[in-house]
């Protein structure tokens, strides 16, 4: 699908490393974008640090302040805010979500790591679905051009094939059980709503994330050198750099429209 000049890509979790890197490439390529951020100044500072000028931000990006629990702010992020356009509401052509919680240690031998909000990914997905369904109901014409969604999940949640290297299995299947339950719920919601609420869906499962969002930072392997697997034939590896994951999502999903990846659960690793 070709993105028209009045369409935009909606970002959730863009102050996270992978999604921020994806947004940087999206803006550099000239696309319009919206982003929901709890702290807009944090997002602006991250984009400035990556060389995105204020002029580019003014022309191509609209940031909405809000939490993912705020359906109204989600609706704003999903609807059209391209400068110079008026008239009927149009929706984002794509949604990119890298929402995730902050890991926290707890006094438990069985579950030493939990996250600040153990249902954040499922909640975010439910709320995006609810927001879209309410928009379709009040503005039926929007349902003719539904957005696709790409979410960042994780390895270690497959029911089909083991995609975690042997040395990481206790970490992934015991220590990280709480965040992974949330990711599985997110994946189910996205899959169930693909073709109905969403035009299509792509699930990206990176291995252990390293580095930050810096697209020019060190430690990157390069997005085109990543090993890419599918649920049935996962690419099994230890780590992957956030900036590489973000660029991979830009190159393979944002830039292309993502149709060739719809329905896939993609493992990404070095
Ligand atoms: N750590 C790993 O090794 C690993 C491995 C595989 C997958 N993952 C998953 O991959 C995804 C991307 O990870 P990352 O490290 O690039 O990013 P991250 O640092 O986990 O960023 C999370 C993002 O979610 C946002 N967020 C959290 N709660 C929110 C709320 N209530 N409302 C609105 N926004 C909220 C954060 O915003 P604020 O800036 O406001 O906090 C931030 O933008 C995450 O889901 C992560 O769990 C992680």
UniProtKB/TrEMBL annotation:
<dbReference type="InterPro" id="IPR016040">
    <property type="entry name" value="NAD(P)-bd_dom"/>
</dbReference>
<feature type="domain" description="NAD(P)-binding">
    <location>
        <begin position="13"/>
        <end position="251"/>
    </location>
</feature>
<dbReference type="InterPro" id="IPR036291">
    <property type="entry name" value="NAD(P)-bd_dom_sf"/>
</dbReference>
<dbReference type="Pfam" id="PF13460">
    <property type="entry name" value="NAD_binding_10"/>
</dbReference>
<protein>
    <recommendedName>
        <fullName>NAD(P)-binding domain-containing protein</fullName>
    </recommendedName>
</protein>
